[in-house]
Structures are given as structure tokens and as C-alpha cells.
Automatic annotation (TrEMBL):
<dbReference type="InterPro" id="IPR050678">
    <property type="entry name" value="DNA_Partitioning_ATPase"/>
</dbReference>
<dbReference type="Pfam" id="PF13614">
    <property type="entry name" value="AAA_31"/>
</dbReference>
<protein>
    <submittedName>
        <fullName>Unannotated protein</fullName>
    </submittedName>
</protein>
<feature type="domain" description="AAA">
    <location>
        <begin position="13"/>
        <end position="188"/>
    </location>
</feature>
<dbReference type="InterPro" id="IPR025669">
    <property type="entry name" value="AAA_dom"/>
</dbReference>
<dbReference type="InterPro" id="IPR027417">
    <property type="entry name" value="P-loop_NTPase"/>
</dbReference>
Length: 268
């Protein structure tokens, strides 16, 4: 774990990346934020909690036929360290999902201590990392509840399009529900505006509305909609390895600096 200027080791940050709307750049944000934090020198673990497994494949991990996945961690309490794979980015690791995870939502219903499975698994490896990023499914099932219960913070990507705030109120209510009943330390710490199209007035209007609602929780850096960001996952790469000089890579580097610097970095 990385020490700060005083030589002390700060507490690892466990961040759930969540949005109940699909197609809002949640996995793209998880993968590329993770890669950029790793590039800054932070040991970073991406936990793929989405049965689609896009964070895993987006980091070059073939999730078909893997012996130990997040399904085994959640359902059979396999040690998380048995599931973790290195990626092509130094300091970046991934705990992959498999299609079996889709059945975990149902299998967890009668399970003992079902909301705490992920928290216990992460606690066992937490000292090895500076950041743990949890890519939650786009729904509020038991997998997402596990992710929110294990996290200390929630990062919400919001697309710069019409209906951008649709469902956000429900997400905030659900975060509050988890906070009141399971995880009293949970907070929405960061909101990232993604899929920004500078050619439209609507995108500017959405960013302005989000900033008015959420103040310094909103990153100053806005992530543009770019072809290169869309192409990178199909090559199993983050944007910083796929096209390091692209606008998308520059934007996610900016987001990583703001996340690691906190609100003070956002108000500079």
C-alpha cells in the first residue's frame, strides 16, 4: 500500500461505482478510473460484480471457464485472493465475474448473512490495496446491496443526455436505505459527468443541472463521448493502454486525480 508524505498508510478506499440505469458508462468508468489510479502509483483492485462481466473482459480477462470467479467468492465464500488476476496495467488487478453470477441473485435469497458476503471477502485483502473499485450491476438486487454494504463511498457516473437524472433519486434513496440499515459510513462521494457531446447545448445544460444539485461532489473533469473509449473494451484494454494520448485517456486521468485528491482537488 502507498504511504503518504508523512510515511503513514492511509485507509484503503472502497468505492462502489453504481447507477441503476444501464448504458451510462458505469463499467467504462470503473475500468478506466482503475487504470488511471494504478498509473498514479496506487495499487488498485477492480471487483466485477456484474454478471455480464464487461469489466473483466475490458481488462483483458477471458471470463469463460475461469476456475474461481466472484460467483465462488459470493456463493461459496472462496477467498477473494484466489480469484484476483493481474492486468496489463502495472498496479491494476481484477477479480473477474462469470455468467454464473447471474444466478447468485436468486441463490442469495435464503443465504445466511447474505448482505455481508462481499464485505467479509474484501476485508481479508484490504491491506494489499489503496483502492478497491466495485463495478455494481445496473439494478438494486442482492449483488448491488453487497457492493454498497462493502463500500465506504459511492461514485455515480451520469450521462450528459436527456433523462440523465432519471433514476438517480431512486439510487440515492437506496444508498440511504443501505446506510441506515447496513452500512452507516456509506456516502455518495463523487459524481462524474460522462458521454459529454460538446456539439449539443443539452450536454451543457445537464452538466449545469448536476452541478447545481450536487455541488463539489461533481468532478470538474467531464468525460467526452469518443469512439476510442467505445473501441478500447473490444481489444481488452483500458483507454490508457489502447490510446494513451486520446481525449478519453486525458479525461479519465483528470477524474483519477480528482478522486484521489477529493473535494479540495475539485475546487482548485
Amino acid at each position: 500500500m502507498t504511504a503518504d508524505a508523512s510515511g503513514r498508510r492511509p485507509l484503503p478506499r472502497v468505492i462502489a461505482i453504481a447507477n441503476q440505469k444501464g448504458g451510462v458508462g458505469k463499467t467504462t468508468t470503473t475500468v478506466n478510473l482503475g487504470a488511471c489510479l494504478a498509473e498514479l502509483g496506487y495499487r488498485t483492485l477492480v471487483i466485477d460484480l456484474d454478471p455480464q462481466g464487461n469489466a473483466s473482459t475490458g481488462l483483458g480477462i477471458e471470463n469463460r471457464g475461469i476456475e474461481t470467479s466472484m460467483y465462488h467468492v459470493i456463493m461459496h465464500e472462496a477467498p477473494l485472493e484466489n480469484c484476483i488476476e493481474p492486468t496489463a496495467v502495472k498496479n491494476l488487478f481484477v477479480a473477474p465475474a462469470s455468467l454464473d453470477l447471474a444466478g447468485a441473485e436468486i441463490e442469495l435469497v435464503p443465504a445466511f448473512s447474505r448482505e455481508n458476503r462481499l464485505r467479509r471477502a474484501i476485508d481479508a485483502v484490504l491491506d494489499d490495496y489503496d483502492y478497491v473499485l466495485i463495478d455494481c450491476p445496473p439494478s438494486l438486487g442482492l449483488l448491488t446491496v453487497n457492493g454498497l454494504n462493502a463500500a465506504r463511498e459511492v461514485l455515480v457516473p451520469i450521462q450528459c443526455e436527456y433523462y440523465a437524472l432519471e433514476g438517480l433519486g431512486q439510487l440515492l434513496r437506496n444508498v440511504d436505505l443501505v446506510k441506515r440499515n447496513l452500512n452507516p459510513t456509506l456516502e455518495v462521494s463523487t459524481i462524474v459527468c460522462v458521454m459529454y457531446d460538446a456539439r449539443t447545448k443539452l450536454a451543457d445544460a445537464v452538466v449545469k443541472e448536476v452541478r447545481e444539485h450536487f455541488g463539489d461532489k461533481v468532478c470538474r473533469t467531464v468525460v467526452p463521448r469518443t469512439v476510442r473509449l467505445s473501441e478500447a473494451p473490444s481489444f481488452g484494454q483500458s483507454i490508457i493502454t489502447f490510446d494513451s494520448g486520446s481525449k478519453g485517456a486525458t479525461a479519465y486521468r483528470g477524474v483519477a486525480k480528482e478522486v484521489s485528491g477529493g473535494p479540495a482537488e475539485r475546487t482548485r
